[in-house]
Specification:
Layout lengths: L8 H25 L9 H17 L3 E3 L13 E5 L6 H8 L5 E5 L8 H7 L2 E3 L6 H12 L3 E4 L11 E2 L4 H10 L2 E8 L18 E4 L12 H16 L2 E2 L11 H5 L10 H5 L7
Length: 281
């Protein structure tokens, strides 16, 4: 039987170079064919975004529903993207579904140093566990004022058990009201339910991101907590999932999740979001 050990090394070298060449040509063709559908500004960004889409498609078999509700351009205007939080892979799946860049708000103590290049590339806005980080709120509001998109997980922690909607933090509603930005709600399902949450990055799944109609709360009389409650009610209606009202600790962090080493996704404290310029206590 003929095996690879019988193939001369120079033949393997030629085949390898040919494979690399075809891969490079394929990537170049993809970039040239779809520049307007990526949030990239440089060739480096284009390559990383395309690789992220390939990763989401093949490792997580990502399906995207409600595409008609996702803005098709790279500059959708001031927008707050919100989603239920299921796993560490959530932001990557959302980035693969959206053709515009999103700056995520993320817990400071989840800032893995080895991924600093990624945080800088994505321009992540880090928030302290206390939720009283005025500089982070100011940065998020400035980005929205410039017409950018901010990503927030309004539950403030991972959904555990899965397919249950936790209370939405009031600070999210305050930021929506203060910025007058439109809200694009997404529902994530099917991600790997593993601990720690980051291990979902290398676990196979059949995940989906469903986009619902964009909401403009600036045309309503709702404010702060009312907006947060309204959004949660919509998620409960869309999904049909159970409402999980398990209380968090005094710091606003899910103590049960912390004990099991699960990352949190803190959101701004209500008082900070409503008055980010005030002095710290």
């Amino acid at each position: 039987m003929l095996t690879w050990t019988h193939v001369p090394p120079w033949v393997l070298l030629i085949l390898g170079l040919a494979g690399v060449g075809f891969l490079a040509l394929g990537l170049f063709w993809t970039i040239r064919r779809t520049p307007a559908r990526t949030p990239a500004r440089t060739p480096h960004d284009v390559v990383l975004h395309v690789c992220g889409r390939i990763y989401a498609r093949f490792l997580h078999r990502l399906s995207i529903r409600g595409r008609e509700h996702i803005p098709s351009g790279r500059t959708p205007g001031a927008m707050i993207v919100i989603a239920n939080h299921t796993a560490g892979v959530d932001p990557i799946l959302i980035a693969a579904a959206c053709p515009f860049p999103i700056r995520w708000m993320m817990a400071e103590d989840m800032r893995v140093k080895k991924l600093e290049w990624l945080w800088r590339w994505q321009q992540v806005i880090f928030v302290s566990r206390s939720g009283r980080d005025r500089s982070a709120v100011r940065e998020a509001l400035r980005h929205l004022e410039s017409g950018g998109a901010i990503g927030i997980f309004p539950e403030g922690s991972l959904e555990r058990p899965a397919r249950q909607i936790r209370p939405f933090q009031r600070g999210v509603g305050v930021m929506i009201h203060r910025s007058r930005a439109r809200v694009m709600p997404l529902v994530i399902e099917g991600t790997p339910q593993v601990d720690p949450a980051w291990s979902s990055l290398w676990r196979r799944s059949k995940s989906s991101v469903t986009a619902h109609e964009i909401i403009d709360y600036s045309t309503t009389d709702l404010r702060g907590a009312e907006i947060a409650d309204d959004l949660r009610s919509r998620y409960l209606a869309w999904t049909g999932w159970k409402a999980n009202d398990q209380p968090r600790g005094a710091s606003g962090i899910d103590e049960g999740a912390r004990a099991k080493g699960r990352p949190e996704a803190p959101v701004p404290d209500e008082s900070v979001a409503s008055n980010p310029e005030s002095n710290a206590a």
